[in-house]
């Protein structure tokens, strides 16, 4: 029964154009679009022609070490991102009026403001990098705290707080500088968009499982009725179908990785096995989410697909796919949301691989995905095993 | 002794306020085609879904092959085939693959299954469409595929739930002939429809249900005897006075006369040579008519008399 169901489930999935689009084609299309969107920026920032900017060099700026140090780093060396002029407020305005700079930065306490005149590539890079520094400041704080906690646990009572924060800052900010860095230790922050893309692709496996589960439920589809009155046991059928869905999903991920590595040029470095592991766990989470949607959403197949895509896209949005700062905003203001958001678990797991020395955070995310999958399966189990209905 | 294949006793199915099946009891015997006849919403499909253990029912008991029918009664399910009202096939699979998939849920042996699938294809006459996809088939062919998917594993008991809805006359005849052949090959068949002509054509026994209750059962002939009407004569007349209608009502054995859309229908409770007498009457009264024909009572007349409404309401 397993092989029979596996074979036909595979056929059903591969011949369904809608499913193939969402699970195989859509992530690849997004990958191409991301590459097109970021290529100008990465080329600009990764090569010559640094962006001319000014910084209002007042007391507020001087006392903000993160911005001061980061911009200093970004304005040094042959591969610098910015040509920075440290000037007064009036001078900065004058430079902007004369089009000598793309924009200027002013720091007023916690309020950091970027002023630009137009919306060109240089201005975009300037705004983007400042946004990144804003985001990084919370990451630095977060990582720094965990390192301090780690030191305390190990009995180290002579903690050099400044050194820890400086090390962390350097590491985080270094990765900002090397936007397309191919070393195995660092990843570009643009790559977090690709993390979300991987997460989205993982979660889209839900469409595969949802479709196949619908075919087994007598109260949803007519073929479900036919299947339900057969002597075939549900366990074997479900296992065959879900295995087929998982195989198709893995094939889709393989295509996505090939595209990202060979077309986009993303270097996952030494972490590729871990990335594959979390992708597999993410895909299982997607499959189980699809099962839950199939069982609990009492609506037609198309409506269910729309609902599932909506859930996944919302998860992607909250995890930072449409704007990196969103992830940090959610982490700060509603952390529980990203703790139950499997997309965030996947992106955070990938993120942790590159920003944290220990595997703790990665493991927490991996375990969270396993728990998420288990919860989805447990709550769906009754519906899956259900054999008699109140109405059909 | 004839074997009971299905035993339904006091079946009750309620949907909140609505009692869809109201204490239904009946038996189905080996190798018979039994027709469950009733208007839309009378409880036919609910009865079938309850028998198949797809629906929870409030009261009653159901036995198939002498054993209680339950969702996990796999040995019983193995011998059952169902053709649902709605077409239950995969759009993504070819005709052959659809039949093979559903047959594979019952038959594990590949060689045997291949043989069975071919038999089913030949029985419903879709041999030329094996590699077609469902959306490439006409409505009639799709219905035939639906049937093939339900009977390919050669079940001993087959449920047909309105299999001919929206089917052209040629496909309908093909389907009905196929059902008779299945019975001749040894299957027991429970057939639901609201087309009385179909049950008259193929069923050995008929159960008429309305509002979830059995209102009459028996063979087609025995049911027709329940009707007061023994004969109906229809005459196409362009003009007819009320006085003539009153005069016809007074003729021997006439129990009712209606005149609508140039058609006069005269119902008799018996008598012989009624049509000849009617022709004489029309000639004597110098009434010109276009055509005249006589009909025996139908199951619809029986239903009409018992419930006061048409079967196809």
Can you lay out the helices and strands and say which pair or pack?
The complex is a heterodimer of chains A (392) and B (313).
Chain A: H1 2-14, H2 17-46, E1 51-56, H3 59-63, H4 65-74, E2 82-87, H5 89-97, E3 103-108, E4 111-116, H6 121-153, H7 161-177, H8 191-203, H9 205-214, H10 222-228, H11 234-264, H12 272-296, H13 301-319, H14 324-333, H15 335-339, H16 342-355, H17 360-385
Helix pairs in contact in A: 1-11, 2-6, 2-8, 2-11, 4-7, 6-7, 8-11, 8-12, 8-13, 8-16, 9-11, 9-12, 9-13, 11-12, 12-16, 12-17, 13-16, 16-17
Chain B: E1 4-15, E2 18-29, E3 33-37, H1 44-51, E4 59-64, E5 67-68, H2 74-77, E6 80-83, H3 95-104, H4 110-124, H5 139-151, E7 157-161, H6 169-184, E8 188-193, H7 196-202, E9 205-210, E10 213-218, H8 220-224, E11 231-236, H9 242-249, E12 254-260, E13 263-268, H10 274-284, E14 292-295, H11 299-307
Parallel strand pairs in B: 3-8, 3-9, 6-7, 7-8
Antiparallel strand pairs in B: 1-2, 1-4, 4-5, 9-10, 11-13, 11-14, 12-13
Protein model, in words:
The complex is a heterodimer of chains A (392) and B (313). With 392 residues, chain A is an alpha/beta fold. Chain A has 17 helices and four strands. Chain A has helices at 2-14, 17-46, 59-63, 65-74, 89-97, 121-153, 161-177, 191-203, 205-214, 222-228, 234-264, 272-296, 301-319, 324-333, 335-339, 342-355, 360-385; strands at 51-56, 82-87, 103-108, 111-116. In chain A, a hairpin with a 2-residue loop joins strand 3 and strand 4 (111-116). The two termini of chain A are 26 Å apart. Chain B has two domains: 4-224, Rossmann fold (3-Layer(aba) Sandwich), CATH 3.40.50.300; 231-296, Alpha-Beta Plaits (2-Layer Sandwich), CATH 3.30.70.100. Chain B has helices spanning 44-51, 74-77, 95-104, 110-124, 139-151, 169-184, 196-202, 220-224, 242-249, 274-284, 299-307, and strands spanning 4-15, 18-29, 33-37, 59-64, 67-68, 80-83, 157-161, 188-193, 205-210, 213-218, 231-236, 254-260, 263-268, 292-295. The chains are: A alpha/beta (392), B alpha/beta (313). The interface between A and B is medium-sized, with 27 and 32 residues.
């Amino acid at each position: 029964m397993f092989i029979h169901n596996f074979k036909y489930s595979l056929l059903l999935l591969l011949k369904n154009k809608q499913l193939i689009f969402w699970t195989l084609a859509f992530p690849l299309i997004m990958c191409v679009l991301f590459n097109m969107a970021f290529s100008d920026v990465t080329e600009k920032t990764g090569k010559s022609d640094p962006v001319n900017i000014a910084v209002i060099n007042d007391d507020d700026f001087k006392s903000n070490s993160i911005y001061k140090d980061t911009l200093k780093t970004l304005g040094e060396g042959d591969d610098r991102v910015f040509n920075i002029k440290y000037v007064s407020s009036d001078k900065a305005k004058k430079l902007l009026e004369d089009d000598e700079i793309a924009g200027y930065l002013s720091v007023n306490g916690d309020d950091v403001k970027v002023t630009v005149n137009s919306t060109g590539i240089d201005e975009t890079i300037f705004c983007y990098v400042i946004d990144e520094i804003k985001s990084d400041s919370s990451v630095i704080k977060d990582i720094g705290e965990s390192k301090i906690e780690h030191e305390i646990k190990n009995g180290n009572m002579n903690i050099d707080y400044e050194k820890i924060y400086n090390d962390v800052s350097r590491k985080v900010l270094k990765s900002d500088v090397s936007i397309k860095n191919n070393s195995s230790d660092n990843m570009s922050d643009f790559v977090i968009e690709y993390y979300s893309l991987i997460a989205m692709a993982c979660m889209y496996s839900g469409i595969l499982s949802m479709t196949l589960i619908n075919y087994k439920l007598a109260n949803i589809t007519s073929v479900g009725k036919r299947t339900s009155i057969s002597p075939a046991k549900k366990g074997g059928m479900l296992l065959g179908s879900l295995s087929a869905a998982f195989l198709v999903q893995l094939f889709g991920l393989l295509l996505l990785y090939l595209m990202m590595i060979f077309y986009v040029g993303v270097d996952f470095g030494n972490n590729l096995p871990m990335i594959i592991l979390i992708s597999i766990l993410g895909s299982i989470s997607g499959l189980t989410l699809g099962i839950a949607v199939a069982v609990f959403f009492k609506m037609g197949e198309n409506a269910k697909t729309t609902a599932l895509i909506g859930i996944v896209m919302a998860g992607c949005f909250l995890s930072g796919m449409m704007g990196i700062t969103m992830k940090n905003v959610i982490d700060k203001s509603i952390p529980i949301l990203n703790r139950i958001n499997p997309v965030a678990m996947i992106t955070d797991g990938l993120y942790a691989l590159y920003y944290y020395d220990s595997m703790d955070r990665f493991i927490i995310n991996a375990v969270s995905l396993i728990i998420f999958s288990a919860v989805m399966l447990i709550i769906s189990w009754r519906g899956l095993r259900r054999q008699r209905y109140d109405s059909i | 002794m004839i074997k009971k294949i299905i035993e339904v006793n006091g079946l009750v199915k309620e949907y909140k306020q609505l009692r869809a099946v109201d204490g239904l009891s009946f038996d189905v015997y080996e190798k018979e085609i039994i027709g469950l006849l009733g208007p839309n919403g009378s409880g036919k499909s609910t009865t079938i879904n309850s028998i198949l253990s797809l629906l929870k029912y409030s009261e009653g008991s159901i036995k198939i092959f002498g054993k209680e029918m339950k969702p996990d009664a796999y040995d019983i399910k193995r011998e059952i085939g169902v053709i649902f009202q709605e077409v239950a096939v995969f759009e993504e699979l070819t005709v052959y693959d659809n039949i093979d998939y559903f047959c594979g849920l019952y038959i594990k042996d590949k060689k045997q299954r291949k043989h069975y699938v071919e038999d089913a294809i030949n029985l419903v006459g879709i041999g030329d469409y094996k590699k077609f996809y469902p959306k490439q088939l006409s409505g009639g062919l799709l219905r035939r595929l639906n049937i093939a998917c339900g009977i390919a594993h050669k079940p001993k008991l087959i449920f047909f739930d309105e299999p001919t809805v929206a089917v052209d006359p040629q496909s309908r005849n093909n389907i009905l002939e196929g059902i008779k052949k299945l019975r001749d090959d040894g299957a027991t068949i429970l057939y639901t429809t609201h087309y009385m002509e179909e049950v008259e054509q193929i069923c050995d026994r008929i159960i008429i249900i309305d509002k979830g209750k059995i209102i009459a059962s028996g063979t087609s002939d025995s049911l027709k005897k329940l009707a007061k009407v023994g004969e109906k004569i229809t005459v196409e007349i362009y003009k007819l006075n009320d006085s003539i209608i009153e005069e016809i009502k007074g003729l021997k054995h006439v129990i009712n006369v209606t005149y609508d859309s140039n058609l006069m229908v005269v119902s008799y409770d018996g008598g012989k040579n009624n049509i000849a007498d009617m022709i004489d009457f029309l000639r004597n009264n110098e009434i010109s008519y276009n055509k005249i024909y006589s009909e025996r009572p139908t199951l619809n007349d029986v239903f009409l008399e018992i419930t006061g409404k048409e079967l196809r309401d």
